[in-house]
Amino acid sequence: MAAVELGNKARATLGHMPYAGYRDAAKKGTLLLAYADEQIVGYALYGLTRRRVRLTHLCVDPQWHGHGIARLLVDWISDQHGDYPGILAKCRDSYDLGDMWIKLRFTPLSQRPGRSKARHLLTSWWRDHGQPNLFTRDDDSVLARAAVDLNVLRDLADEERSDAVESRALVGDQFADRLELVRTGALDSEVNSMEGPLRAHCITAAQSFTPPPRVDHAQLKQVRADLLSAVHLVNPGYPHTDQDRYDLEHVCEAIALGLKLFVTRDESLTGILGPPAQRHHGLRILRPLEVITHIDELARAEAYQPAALLGTRYRRQLLGIDAGDDLVGLVNPAAGERRRDLRNTNRGLALAGCDRVGIYDPDGRLVAVIAARRENGALTVPLARVANIGLADTLARQLLFQLRQQAREAGSPILKITDRYVSPALRLAALQDGFNQHDEQLYAFVIDVCGPAKQVEHQAVTAARRVGVPEPAPLRSDMPAVAAAELERIWWPVKIADSALPTYLIPIRQAYSADLLGVPGGLLPRHDNLGLALEHVYYRSPRGTRPRHPARLLWYMSRSGPATAYPAAVIACSQLDLAEIGTPEDFHARFQHLGVWGEHQLHSVAHNGQVQALRFTNTELLTHIPLQRLAVLAAAHQQRGVPPLGPLRIPPGLFAALYQEGRRQ
């Protein structure tokens, strides 16, 4: 509460932060207080992302300015989290605090307009922790896109409006590069119905929103019919009022635009339209506070949508030389491309003997196309397109992962996207996936090595020299876990054996491994070519060993019942991005789009009302390592080769032996 009081006094420069934001940071251990005897004289509120420490608030009591309080706070964060690449903070230039940031050993990283009404310039300040410069900090990438209703817009436009603090936090500088608010036609229509001065204020406030792509009216009509059909089962005759009709149009347009978030403080709207919108269309209707608290989880839900791909009727098919009509929806006119340009590209690749692989949706429309070929030691991608549809982000990430697998199988340590008109969704996904830009091309390392850092560095440097891209920075043998995990993500499938990144052997029953890992097959239909979703959540009791992130996971599929025909074995390797303790209700609300358990099953494994959630990505299936072979390899590393009853941390040497065994064909 002392931090809240200090923050409220400094609201003119810190911006709005709901009380729940302080409470959530305190719960996570990321609210740092500075004391002078018993008096709290300053605080720092920060968050830990996968790539950096994000400093949201740095606040010192004015009576204690000049006493080094800010330096103490920032130095403590660096000392405690030195294994992260650095600290990122954002500050308006108009506050004239540049000298202070420089004294705190921050350097300006980039500059862009903020979300304030005056669009004040906002500088990103970076305090580097001295880690190898292997990380692409894409400061302008948007993690989540959302539409809002008039209630939220009025909160932003009317300074006298009560209870508006949580809505105003949506446009705070700390969320300027992570949350994009989309202006919809439904919102403009409702604003147009207003009278008086507030209408002008709302129009002004909405000018900072992103204009949406043009909505498909036929699709909008179908969405409206589907949503009403579901609502009428419990609420016949809806919509009953003009406000109901506005609410319906808001939600329908958000769905038709492919958005996955809609923000409102209207509990009636949430209660009536929320369940069918999420169940049938994947749109989550949330209060502003819920978006703020779980922005990272929500963003990743929008990006991956694993449930949307599993068991779908999407199909993969080679394109013919005369597939010009199908390609129309993949033209990139914003980059200056014309229809005939894409037709000529397809024809030229066909004549050169390069396969073009298309992905078709259940209605037979071409929604993505990829062409790849091996050239000069690299796997080059001269054609990389994804249509502007709701699943664009999901398809982009799936296709990039498939390309990494293809590069690995071809023995190409460099993956290059050379398509000058690459789709925006694919470009953004590539930058987030660790691609770098060189000579107007995107490239990534695909290092198929499980060994010490020096071996990894040698292969990466050799590949860079051969292909003609910049050489990576040197690696060190005692790389911190956070740095190693990030490198294993952006250089997948590399495994750095002499780093501090831990590995856990995790037991999983066959019924659940079929859902999460696709092994054994046959219980759930899975698309052969789109493969596994990139992200899932595995739940367990918090008793016993609690895995910590980041880490690697080796999955041990147990022989769980007389009806199972598959022997127990180590079957897959994943990257652990998050290991968190919480309540079944909280986890079900946050991760239901990533896991397979319902809330009842979460309660069944809870201990003292708590469950552990393991969020993992980039699952790689291995050749099965049966229990007998596991025992032999474990004994060679002075370990017991018995079936694990819970998470079991294993030494780096045993992990390397198991992983290399699983990679043998």
From TrEMBL:
Domain N-acetyltransferase intervals: 1-155
Against SUPFAM superfamilies, the record matches this protein to: Acyl-CoA N-acyltransferases (Nat)
Fetch the InterPro entries from UniProt.
Acyl_CoA_acyltransferase (IPR016181), GNAT_dom (IPR000182)
Against Pfam families, the record matches this protein to: Acetyltransf_10
Q: What is this protein called?
A: N-acetyltransferase domain-containing protein
Q: Which organism is it from?
A: Plantactinospora endophytica
